[in-house]
Write a structure and sequence with these properties.
Rossmann fold, alpha/beta, five-stranded parallel β-sheet, four-stranded antiparallel β-sheet, 10% strand, 19 strands, single chain
């Protein structure tokens, strides 16, 4: 193998050269004329980054909503940071960024993500940082900074805060110069570079301007080179992250930089900017974004630093004047800390400078399932099979803990969950669903977090009881046992409520698997077709007051009322409504015929369900499902059970072990006399 050739094929020289572009100050001005977006501020760049991935319009309960593809984590094939079910919160966040990008005022606020633990607040911040890193590596997201060289023999010295090169134009003439530079050039945003250079760059500028007798243009052409800036959290360029620590170990210099005492001897003063390290989190985040983890746990002194950084876009490094910054400030906090903020009168100034965006837990079942299936699917997990509905039932319980009891006494909590998930229920419209949401504004701000669910699914996977397969009961038992030690459950009453909800989920799971087994038993399409044809013949004769010819005797007979009722009762058609139901069926068949379409049993979902239930009742005794829980099964029965098991595996995704477990469990239900309820 030619290793050099192999390495060359994986060498991205063009990309490297693009990311390491250098040019003169005049070269940069030509770039600005060609594409003014290179001079965007931090809010504009972040907003455009989100839009660059595209969006689509959707409707949720008759209300329009914009879905931003960026939040599905397009950077990773596994979409490990993808966010599901928070469309409204994310739409509000993007709205705040848009307002800030346009300069409508929210650029002077801290964006505060507020919600319960594990509701994706830090994931949103991580996505924004990751997206900004990626965006600045593209042509569309390119941005630039500059380097100094005082004397020809000196090495190039990078702007310590990665300043925008246009800030090198003296502030007094900058607006007019830029206006003439961009005259006739179309731009998404007006190019308005505000503020002065950082102290170190100002020091160099002042030391050179006298040498050129005020000729700033020659100064910049001789001593400045502009370089491409690629934002990188690992390299501490354009992204800062601050986490609260023990009060004794916290120091505001972590935010605004500190004196380099080794250089004081070299430069003679601790107020010389060359003897200062501009490496605080605010400094390194300039031109990008700074994240404050658990922002309200910060010492009050740190929050004062935030006031100026937010409102004035200035920070105060030790020994220096106010220094301009250009960055998005985003923090996140949990409910207890936010309540403290609300109750602390001393924090009124900070409250006034925040835009709070609630990030609740999911309240839509399908979206919650996606969260867990990202980590727990049979494609990802090796060595252990996850039975159907395992993740679904865990997600269902999590959502039930987050929902508030409906005020409508005729609606159960489980039915409310299903309505939120898009299922239609008799008597409830999409408007009713909106009313349910509006009547419970704090829904999703409490309950069980996804992390707890993920931990318990993990426990079940490594449990000795799993033996290579886990099922919903194993995970639900893990969830139950963990409640005893859950640190966020405040009292025994709440713990009991959560356990009661586990019982609701178990009942729902029993109904699901009973119906699956029933469908697997009655999955003989020919038999259902024959039963359907027989039913329709008798209904036609009944509605048209005719007789039915008996195929065996050749005699005309009255329609078989017993047959028709045995099917209709399976879907709860009462005696008083049987005529209406039969006319509906015949009208439906007639309407299809007018359109040139043929009637099949599966074209009417309700009738199909009734036929399946009827066939199941007729066949279950011949299969002798209840014999599964006995020690002796005859060969004929075993063969029939194997057919049912194979249908469970093929149609519903079971493996041999989980299919056997389900059949055994459903057999025990039938043994105690529980019927299958219509779904």
């Amino acid at each position: 193998m030619n290793l050099k050739s192999l390495a060359q094929r994986f060498t991205q020289k063009d990309e490297y050269q693009a990311h390491n572009w250098t040019g003169s100050f005049s070269d940069y001005l030509e770039l600005v004329r060609k594409d003014p977006r290179v001079a965007r501020n931090a809010f504009q760049r972040l907003y455009d980054m989100i839009l660059s991935w595209g969006s689509e319009e959707a409707t949720r309960n008759k209300r329009p909503i914009t879905l931003y593809k960026f939040f599905s984590d397009p950077f990773d094939e596994s979409a490990k940071d993808g966010i599901f079910g928070l469309e409204q919160a994310l739409q509000r966040l993007v709205g705040v960024l848009k307002s800030a990008a346009e300069g409508y005022g929210t650029e002077k606020r801290v964006i505060l993500l507020h919600g319960p633990v594990g509701s994706s607040k830090s994931t949103i911040a991580r996505l924004l940082k990751k997206g900004l890193e990626h965006y600045t590596r593209t042509d569309e997201g390119a941005l630039y900074t500059f380097e100094w060289r005082i004397n020809p023999e000196d090495p190039w010295e990078t702007s310590p805060m990665h300043e925008e090169p246009l800030k090198l134009i003296p502030e007094g003439v900058r607006a007019g110069f830029v206006a003439e530079l961009l005259e006739g050039v179309e731009s998404t945003y007006p190019v308005a570079v505000k503020g002065e250079l950082d102290p170190a760059s100002r020091f160099h500028f002042r030391s050179l301007i006298d040498r050129y007798d005020g000729d700033w243009w020659t100064l910049l052409e001789q001593h400045i080179r502009v370089v491409r800036l690629v934002i990188s959290e690992k390299d501490r360029v354009g992204i800062g992250t601050f986490q609260p620590k023990d009060e004794k170990n916290q120091d505001s210099t972590e935010l605004t930089g500190d004196i380099n005492y080794r250089k004081i001897a070299l430069y003679g003063s601790d107020s010389d900017p060359r003897a200062f390290n501009f490496d605080g989190e605010f400094n390194v985040a300039n031109r990008g974004i700074i994240e404050f983890v658990e922002i309200l746990k910060l010492d009050v002194a740190f929050l004062y630093d935030l006031l100026g950084a937010t409102q004035e876009h200035k920070i105060k490094p030790k020994k220096f004047a106010q220094t301009d910054i250009d960055e998005v400030i985003i923090g996140h906090t949990n409910e207890p800390e936010y309540r403290k903020l609300q109750n602390n009168e001393l924090m009124e100034a900070f409250r006034d400078r925040t835009v709070k965006i609630d990030i609740p837990y999911n309240t839509v079942l399908n979206d919650e399932i996606k969260i867990y299936k990202r980590d727990f699917s049979n494609q990802r997990i090796r060595g252990c099979f996850i039975a159907p509905h395992t993740v679904e039932m865990a997600a269902m319980w999590a959502l039930l803990t987050r929902l508030e009891e409906p005020k409508n006494a005729s609606l159960s909590l489980l039915q409310k969950l299903k309505l939120y998930n898009g299922k239609s229920l008799p008597g409830f419209t999409e408007d009713n669903v909106n009313e349910l949401r509006e009547s419970a504004p704090r829904e999703g701000m409490h309950g069980i977090s996804p992390r707890y669910i993920q931990d318990k699914i993990s426990n079940a996977l490594v449990s000795e009881q799993s033996e290579g397969t886990i099922n919903p009961f194993m995970v639900l038992n893990e969830l139950d046992s963990g409640l005893r030690h859950h640190s966020l459950i405040a009292n025994e009453e709440l713990r009991k409520h959560y356990r009661d909800l586990l019982g609701v989920v178990k009942e729902e799971y029993e109904d699901i698997i009973k119906n699956e087994v029933q469908k697997a038993i009655s999955a003989d399409e020919e038999a259902i077709g024959r039963l359907c044809g027989n039913y329709v013949d008798h209904v036609k004769a009944y509605t048209q007051k005719e007789k039915v010819r008996n195929k065996f005797t050749g005699q005309d007979e009255e329609p078989d009322e017993r047959l028709m009722r045995s099917i209709e009762e399976k879907i709860d058609v009462p005696e008083s409504r049987k005529d209406d139901f039969r006319r509906e069926i015949m009208n439906y068949i007639g309407a299809l015929a007018i359109e040139g379409k043929q009637f099949h049993y599966w074209t009417n979902e309700r009738l199909q369900r009734a036929l399946e239930l009827k066939l199941f009742e007729d066949q279950k005794d011949s299969i002798k499902l209840t014999s599964l829980i006995s020690d002796v099964i005859d060969k004929e029965t075993q063969e029939k059970i194997e057919v049912v098991k194979s249908r469970l595996i093929k149609n519903y995704g079971y493996n041999d072990v989980s299919a056997t477990d389900v059949l055994n469990y459903v057999a025990s239900i039938f043994a105690r006399g529980d019927a299958v309820r219509p779904s």
